[in-house]
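Final report, Chapter 2: Outcomes

The project's central promise was a pipeline that accepts a single protein chain and returns its three-dimensional structure in a standardized token representation, suitable for archiving and comparison. That pipeline is now operational. To close this chapter, we reproduce one record exactly as it appears in the project archive, with the input sequence first and the structure output second.
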Amino acid sequence: MVVFLFGIAKDIVGTSELDLFALEQKPNSVGELIRYMNDSYPEFSKLSSLAVAVNGEYASNVALLSSHDEIALIPPVSGG
């Protein structure tokens, strides 16, 4: 399971890509992945909203994950 991070999410974690393959207990759903990120990176929980894509498709917190999924965590973007 590979997680790609963008914007402020990348800044919080310190990298643009996380490989969760080695985790003993992998997240089974998007919601579990978000809880893992919040627990592992406390600043992550301060994000006001977050879009999640699994294998190129936007997904809700109940979407199931498998070990070979590619996940993108996309925080809100501002610009002007």
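Archive annotation: DSSP finds two helices and five strands in the chain.
This record, like all others produced under the grant, will remain available to the consortium after the project formally closes.
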